[in-house]
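Tokens as discussed.
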């Protein structure tokens, strides 16, 4: 590894996250740096996980290190990527993602800078970029994504009780993320990329024909699922992953209460 010593301390704007950024704004920052949300996907074992890059200034004050971070089984895990030396945070994030895409990651953190926590899986197979993107379809995570967990937590805080990851209709293999059997309300928390969000979905640049067909298939399946459920008397609530959890929970509560007023 090439060590890029600095003559003086880098400006905080080269590495520190600006104060006041919302979770959604931080996600957009990472998406832009990685060249698209699909490029932030990493494959751990047989799971697809969305990762982020964290930047830290070394204790000696003259170097900035990049780490790839993700959530696994409710814990934060990370892996050292390398040293970056650009003038701005955006440029350093982009440089770190280029290093990830090139496979330039290390299981060893720099001296005196231990990893905060190793992945419970013990190792990471594919990383972001094309090899990982090609592998994503083998490991599309079906439940307990971060947006789902956030929405479920917010709904629970409102006093709502529900079943998780079950099929509302017997004999039909269509699983909802949250199910309220008594109220006959089925909730789906949809990823912006996988379900073709009109606001945030960006077509893949690599293997575009394949991914376009895949997303169109998902959209068609969603529509068919909705039609089946509504025909059986269910209320369908679809929440995009970019919707704030508290807002999503309020919408869900309204749908459940709507049943009581029928």
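Sequence:
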């Amino acid at each position: 590894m090439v060590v890029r010593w600095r003559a003086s301390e880098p400006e905080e704007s080269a590495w520190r996250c600006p104060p006041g950024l919302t979770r959604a704004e931080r996600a957009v920052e990472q998406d832009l740096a990685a060249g698209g949300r699909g490029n932030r996907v990493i494959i751990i074992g047989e799971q697809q996980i969305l990762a982020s890059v964290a930047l830290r200034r070394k204790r000696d004050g003259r170097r900035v290190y990049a780490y790839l971070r993700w959530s696994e089984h409710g814990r934060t895990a990370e892996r050292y990527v390398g040293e970056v030396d650009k003038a701005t945070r955006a440029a350093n994030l982009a440089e770190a993602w280029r290093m990830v895409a090139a496979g330039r990651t290390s299981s060893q953190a720099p001296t005196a800078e231990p990893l905060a926590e190793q992945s419970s899986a013990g190792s990471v197979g594919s990383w972001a970029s094309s090899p990982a993107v090609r592998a994503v379809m083998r490991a599309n995570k079906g439940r307990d994504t971060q947006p789902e967990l956030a929405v479920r937590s917010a709904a629970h805080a409102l006093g709502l009780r529900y079943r998780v990851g079950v099929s509302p209709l017997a004999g039909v293999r269509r699983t909802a993320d949250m199910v309220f059997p008594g109220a006959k309300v089925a909730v789906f928390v949809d990823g912006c990329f996988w379900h073709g969000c009109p606001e945030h979905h960006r077509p893949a640049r690599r293997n575009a024909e394949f991914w376009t067909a895949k997303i169109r298939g998902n959209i068609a399946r969603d529509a068919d699922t909705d039609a089946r459920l509504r025909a059986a008397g269910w209320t369908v609530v679809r929440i995009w992953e970019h919707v704030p959890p508290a807002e999503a929970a309020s919408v869900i509560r309204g749908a459940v209460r709507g049943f009581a007023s029928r």
